[in-house]
Amino acid sequence: MIKQYQEELSLAVRAAREAGGLIRDKIYRHQVTETKSCLSDLVTEVDRQAETCIVRLIQQHFPSHAVVGEEQQGNCAGEPGGAMTWYVDPLDGTTNFVFGLPFCAVSIALAHHGTPVLGVVHDPLRDETFTAVRDGGARLNDSPINTDHSIATLDRSLLVTGYPGNIANRPRMHLVNYRQLIDRCNNLRALGSAALELAYVASGRLTGFWEVSLRPWDVAAGMVLVEEAGGTVSDLAGRRLQLTESVDIAATNGLIHEELLECLEWPEYNEIK
Ligand code: IPD
Ligand code: CA
Ligand code: CA
Ligand code: CA
């Protein structure tokens, strides 16, 4: 039994459940929304309250750690990328939340020198908490989880993706990729919460996921979940995923990873391949 990061894990689970309580209480009510970078980039009071609750708990218990939260808009506490940095998405799936579509989550990760070592994705509407600590396996509530290793080809895979809010730079490539994958996979979903979609890949409910232009707090927790559940996570060129400002990610059960990457057309990556 790996004992490392157990205190951090307990705190992250507690924080995710407290924030999840706010989401659960408010999801079917009218939401006062504001927009951020564009009309489809929504934020509500619940996003902010949930983040305040999580960040306060982290800072109380781990005052020397840096915290990067989505709604802080870059005003991080401490020095991100340092020894210990938390990545907090207080409500992943804000659009679903605003429309009363019950698919959203709280996502909390801890990174050590830029490598995520702990991930918690909590679905408050199903009371499902996905957790993983580096080298300690992944769990859903109290049970170990694994990616689905019974599927080895795209034509048997249930894939999931997302529609990034701002595709102004590369709209054609999005259409090419959706088109290619729809023709090649068993079926394709877009469920609206990257963190929960990654948790579903980790638990074998989905076979693979790709999305571009995500942010570190969308993927950091899910990355640990998928890797600890026996899957593979990379950028679209197959390289180790870095928690940079903008993240392009592929995450699968491992067995379909190469085939998925081959279907994704990204000129900037194809040059590298
Ligand atoms: C969004 C969700 C969605 C993804 C978007 C993200 P938010 O996060 O993860 O699935 O497609 O690109 O921004 O804003 O709801 O936390
Ligand atoms: Ca958002
Ligand atoms: Ca998010
Ligand atoms: Ca969010």
Automatic annotation (TrEMBL):
Taxonomy, superkingdom: Bacteria
Catalytic activity: a myo-inositol phosphate + H2O = myo-inositol + phosphate
Recorded GO MF terms: inositol monophosphate 1-phosphatase activity; metal ion binding
Family annotation (InterPro entries): IMPase, Inositol_monophosphatase-like, Inositol_monophosphatase_CS, Inositol_monophosphatase_SuhB
Pfam families: Inositol_P
Keywords tagged on the record: Hydrolase, Magnesium, Metal-binding
Cofactor names: Mg(2+)
Residues binding Mg(2+): 70, 89, 91-92, 218
E.C. code: 3.1.3.25
Matching Gene3D superfamilies: 3.40.190.80, Fructose-1,6-Bisphosphatase, subunit A, domain 1
GO biological process, one term: phosphatidylinositol phosphate biosynthetic process
Metal-binding among keywords: yes
TM annotation in the entry: none
Family: Belongs to the inositol monophosphatase superfamily.
Protein name: Inositol-1-monophosphatase
Organism: Desulfoscipio gibsoniae DSM 7213
